Amino acid sequence: MAETRDYVSHFDPEVYLKSLYESMGSYEKGDIACFLQNTLHKIFNSEIQFGEKLLDIGSGPTIQSVLSASRRITRIDLTDFTPKNLQVLRDWKDGKRNEVEKLIRYEMKLAGDSRNVSERESEVRSKVHGIYRIDATTEQVFKESIPDDPQYDVITSSLCLEDVSTTLAGYKTAVRNVSKYLKKGGYFVLLGVIEESKYRIGDYIFLGTSLKAEEIRATWREHGFKILQWISDYPEDAAESKDVDNFFGMLAKKE
Ligand SMILES: C[S@@+](CC[C@H](N)C(=O)[O-])C[C@H]1O[C@@H](n2cnc3c(N)ncnc32)[C@H](O)[C@@H]1O
């Protein structure tokens, strides 16, 4: 199996959606998509006033990282590095395709939302405004066009920042690059994986950075954040069988 860092040529959105979201199982059995949704639900279903504008970094071909947030936020901008993923997001926004139904249903169940799926999906669509090409490794993150006012109340990012480079220094640079778009007092919601340097999608192994939990937390503190919540209740047995140490969620406030 080939190892790669070439997202443009080798990241297949359809294979990704199939392997992570169309096959969603149960949280207890260590399903990653369920862990991500449970964690986002915990973070956004709280007393915190999150504000109005959200930027999602490295959305991939999915809106999974903004589903819970969309219940609290009025305007969402999605981003990714890979043109094929951006095309999937644009097709979704234009109503030419739907998000994986299982994913929407799962989040609705968590939220106790009994409307029909299409109504809920239209609601999320109406909140998504811009879809932007970005590169988190460069100081000028927005590549082709820049949002009118690139300052956000909330930034989310799921399973992305540890994948944009292969070193701790590269991780720190990406954190610095993307966190400048967050207003002072704003919230960063991060989902990631601890001590895993690669993951498989279809025929490719994508290489990223293996980071210890303390390295991740220290990086965010160094960049002026106060960590308010660190959620790491990914089932231990599942973590062993999947050969990863753990997935985590973090809520941090920019001071
Ligand atoms: C594992 S996927 C995560 C997708 C989605 N956020 C999720 O939670 O399922 C990693 C994403 O990071 C994106 N990515 C890779 N390099 C990047 C870079 N330099 N800047 C921004 N995003 C990047 C990829 O295109 C891919 O969509």
Automatic annotation (TrEMBL):
InterPro entries in alphabetical order: NNMT_TEMT_trans, SAM-dependent_MTases_sf
Domain of life: Eukaryota
Keywords per UniProt: Methyltransferase, S-adenosyl-L-methionine, Transferase
Gene3D superfamilies in the cross-refs: Vaccinia Virus protein VP39
Gene Ontology terms for molecular function: N-methyltransferase activity
Coiled-coil parts of chain: none
GO CC annotations on file: cytosol
PROSITE patterns found in the cross-reference section: SAM_MT_NNMT_PNMT_TEMT (PS51681)
GO biological process: methylation
SUPFAM superfamilies: S-adenosyl-L-methionine-dependent methyltransferases
Pfam families attached to this UniProt entry: NNMT_PNMT_TEMT
UniProt family annotation: Belongs to the class I-like SAM-binding methyltransferase superfamily. NNMT/PNMT/TEMT family.
Stated name of the protein: Nicotinamide N-methyltransferase-like protein
